[in-house]
Known about the structure:
Layout: H1 5-15, H2 20-27, H3 31-39, H4 49-56, H5 60-64, H6 68-80, H7 88-101, H8 106-119, H9 124-141, H10 145-158, H11 164-168, H12 179-190, H13 193-216, H14 225-242, H15 252-269, H16 272-290, E1 297-299, H17 303-306, E2 310-312, E3 317-319, E4 325-327, H18 339-344, H19 359-370
Antiparallel strand pairs: 1-2, 2-3, 3-4
Helix pairs in contact: 1-3, 2-3, 7-8, 8-9, 8-10, 9-10, 10-12, 12-13, 14-15, 15-16, 16-19
Amino acid sequence: xxxxxxxxxxxxxxxxxxxxxxxxxxxxxxxxxxxxxxxxxxxxxxxxxxxxxxxxxxxxxxxxxxxxxxxxxxxxxxxxxxxxxxxxxxxxxxxxxxxxxxxxxxxxxxxxxxxxxxxxxxxxxxxxxxxxxxxxxxxxxxxxxxxxxxxxxxxxxxxxxxxxxxxxxxxxxxxxxxxxxxxxxxxxxxxxxxxxxxxxxxxxxxxxxxxxxxxxxxxxxxxxxxxxxxxxxxxxxxxxxxxxxxxxxxxxxxxxxxxxxxxxxxxxxxxxxxxxxxxxxxxxxxxxxxxxxxxxxxxxxxxxxxxxxxxxxxxxxxxxxxxxxxxxxxxxxxxxxxxxxxxxxxxxxxxxxxxxxxxxxxxxxxxxxxxxxx
Length: 374
């Protein structure tokens, strides 16, 4: 590693308000020797280091710039404050230099990995061994989740495509919702536009379904009926916006459950017509769902946003246009609610109690019972 001893001797001498001649005399060396040390033209003899350190009342590590404070100053001043002002090639060279100098500085290590993935050009094979070495060290010794995630991301940019999943599996912070982004970045970097947009569209759906799943969990579902109507109406409006005022086949389970919840809330308010209207909508969607065979590929609508991504009925997978399958996130409904079971439930659906003996209710329940729920 580079020694900072020339800078340190000069600094400590000036702190003591001494001339080079005075320091030379105190250390019993020639003024020319002190001048060479401070200019970086040479280092003091190793046997002199204890005497110089004792004279300045510092440790030898501090004298040569090997202490923690010195290292931090060096990294900040000569690496992070400089690197973004350099050309891509010079950035790579500086990052390699400082990674060798501070091999356990994970910020430098991940910075080097990032630059290799961006600027490697035609020299990928030259850097692959270095990348693997850094990635392995970070995953073995670094506990910082951000650094680990950065290392895995970098490796996924340059490894063979069949190795991506194995790298992603090395770090538990990569749950399924984060994985499409890795492929997006990889295909963007490699210029594979068709693959990039295919995985981006699938990622749009997965991120949207994650948001939908989080929104569904709200205290208004079990609160006052007026709060439930307000919340579920907002939720339904969001669904309608996402699916462009239609109900694509793949979204039927989501809409069905919303209609059931709104039906219960309206019955709780005493608005029977709205309650029955939403319950009948849920029944019609259940019938529509029953028409699809098991594992059918279902359209998700909004091709500008989701592309040709399909939902596989009753399976925790979506399918991309090239036939590849990705896991569906927890939270998105991919199977239909058992309407008959919900209508007959005694607990959790008490707002239905006011209409359970009515003829219109019984007719809907009878049809719901006739359905084969898959």
